[in-house]
User: Which sequence fits this backbone?
């Protein structure tokens, strides 16, 4: 495994984690640590939700080395592979970390500081000791904010985790589920919303799996009677239907059912692995509408955008909103430029600016270069549109 550097900036702490060959190391300046080595080892007490590790002092730094089990994955390695049920099950398990609220050991619920096993059990990588090792504090409010941010990071596919963990939810799509998480008063309430959504999604999945479309039944009956005269052809058709056509039809059916019940998050989840260009136009419309309804726009802006969305809309316009919703801003920009819509172009440049501004993998110089480039383009298109803030009518 190649070396991967990850950074955490939260609540005044800045930690740098190095993932490499089954080990994760964290180096902290001795000036930030208020204890002797033997006391630091107290933070390595075994726990079902903590990785095992060692601590050493090297020059001016204290080095923690944690053992990462081979079967574990980070949330960024997992979240694009998980079904909606699996996402919610993982988030329900994450509530196990509430036990550290009153503990001497302090934890950070952060995408870069957690790994999950095959049962989605969470393991904290680096942990601190109250008043001794960063993170030196852990309040109920901090733990709640981190849990909310992690839920939205996974379910709403948000990238700006650290902003959300500081209470900034301005960019979060305002679905009923997301709003419930944002407004939850305490950790228990967030867990309750997650568990309720998990139960609902499990039931919806079960009901969908119980449906056997008539066309599938006709196909298998036809296959039985023609097997003797067309074995080779039948095998080819069976493979196609079993591996591709039937699952595709099931996803289309599920997305339509979700759309009719205005469950836009479920629509997005149902079609998350489908390429926009390969969707029938009706599904492109359904998915684009779902993304618009969950976009971080004002009610007036959503109303204005939805006026231009229908089954008769240009497919490139529908695909623009799908790629935008999926966070593929460069593909969305390409479509906006092809359409020639300056409002959409400006809107995407504001998204690209925000993405660069929250991208912790960029160096300071790289970030400033990208921000300057996008700001120049934003100013240019604002001028063309008479000073519009982001290209969309208020």
Assistant:
């Amino acid at each position: 495994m190649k070396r991967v550097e990850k950074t955490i900036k939260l609540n005044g702490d800045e930690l740098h984690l190095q993932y490499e060959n089954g080990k994760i190391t964290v180096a902290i300046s001795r000036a930030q640590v208020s204890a002797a080595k033997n006391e630091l080892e107290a933070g390595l007490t075994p726990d079902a939700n903590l990785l095992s590790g060692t601590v050493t002092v090297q020059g001016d730094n204290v080095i923690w080395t944690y053992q990462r089990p081979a079967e574990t994955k980070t949330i960024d390695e997992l979240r694009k592979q998980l079904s909606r049920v699996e996402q919610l099950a993982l988030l329900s398990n994450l509530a196990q970390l509430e036990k550290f609220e009153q503990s001497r050991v302090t934890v950070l619920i952060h995408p870069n500081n957690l790994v999950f096993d095959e049962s989605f059990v969470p393991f904290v990588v680096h942990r601190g000791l109250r008043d001794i090792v960063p993170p030196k504090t852990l309040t109920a409010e901090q733990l709640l904010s981190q849990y909310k941010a992690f839920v939205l990071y996974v379910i709403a596919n948000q990238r700006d985790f650290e902003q959300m963990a500081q209470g900034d939810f301005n960019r979060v799509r305002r679905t009923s589920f997301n709003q419930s998480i944002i407004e939850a008063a305490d950790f228990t309430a967030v867990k309750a919303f997650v568990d309720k959504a998990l139960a609902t999604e499990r039931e919806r999945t079960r009901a969908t799996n119980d449906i056997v479309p008539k066309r599938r039944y006709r196909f298998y009956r036809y296959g039985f009677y023609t097997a003797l005269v067309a074995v080779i052809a039948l095998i080819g058709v069976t493979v196609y239907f079993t591996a591709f056509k039937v699952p595709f039809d099931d996803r289309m059916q599920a997305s339509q059912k979700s759309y009719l019940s205005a469950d836009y998050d479920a629509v997005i989840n149902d079609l998350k692995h489908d390429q926009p260009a390969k969707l029938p136009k009706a599904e492109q419309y359904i998915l684009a509408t779902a993304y618009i309804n969950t976009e971080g726009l004002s009610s007036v802006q959503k109303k204005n955008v939805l006026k231009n969305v229908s089954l008769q809309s240009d497919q490139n316009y529908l695909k623009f909103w799908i790629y935008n919703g999926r966070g593929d801003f460069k593909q969305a920009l390409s479509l906006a430029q092809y359409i020639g819509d300056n409002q959409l172009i400006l809107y995407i440049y504001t998204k690209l600016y925000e993405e660069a501004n929250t991208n912790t993998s960029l160096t300071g110089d790289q970030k400033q270069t990208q921000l300057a480039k996008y700001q120049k383009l934003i100013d240019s298109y604002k001028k063309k549109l008479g000073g519009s803030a982001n290209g969309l009518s208020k």
